[in-house]
């Protein structure tokens, strides 16, 4: 679902960012969350801190979740609107802090990776706990197919827009 700034700022949406990181082969970075079973992959994402602009949040989340530093990426594009998904009830029941939100409103960014695979570190940086158990480069279409179902609409919209920017 696409939201305008006023709708995204409403209290029932958690404001976040999402990051599509692509290498020189046009493959996107995808990872499996810790404890995830099956063929389910996602891209880095996370909340926007108070007073933080979305691009700064995207760079911070990228570093915290992947270890990729600012000097190893180049901003290619930003999706021009907020993309949102609703949390399923079972997710809200498992995560009490999420229950106050309808879902997440995200600004998406496309970055080109200029580093080496050795620059990736999913052990959790910036004082954050690790979120991922493994990662790999994959076609964007594979990420669309393997992301958890309730995030799929956002992935399809963002990745569809980004494919034309590469």
UniProtKB/TrEMBL annotation:
Keywords noted in UniProt: Hydrolase
Sequence ranges assigned to domain Nudix hydrolase in this UniProt record: 12-160
PROSITE patterns attached to this UniProt entry: NUDIX (PS51462), NUDIX_BOX (PS00893)
Entries under InterPro entries matching the protein: Nudix_hydrolase, NUDIX_hydrolase-like_dom_sf, NUDIX_hydrolase_CS, NUDIX_hydrolase_dom, RppH
MF terms (GO), sorted A to Z: bis(5'-adenosyl)-pentaphosphatase activity; guanosine-3',5'-bis(diphosphate) 3'-diphosphatase activity
Keyword Hydrolase: yes
Cofactors demanded by this protein: Mn(2+)
BP GO annotations: nucleoside phosphate metabolic process; ribose phosphate metabolic process
SUPFAM superfamilies referenced in this protein's UniProt entry, alphabetically: Nudix
Family indicated by similarity: Belongs to the Nudix hydrolase family.
NCBIfam families listed in its UniProt record: PRK00714.1-5 (NF001938)
Record's protein name: Nudix hydrolase domain-containing protein
Organism placement in taxonomy: Eukaryota, Viridiplantae, Chlorophyta, Pseudoscourfieldiophyceae, Pseudoscourfieldiales
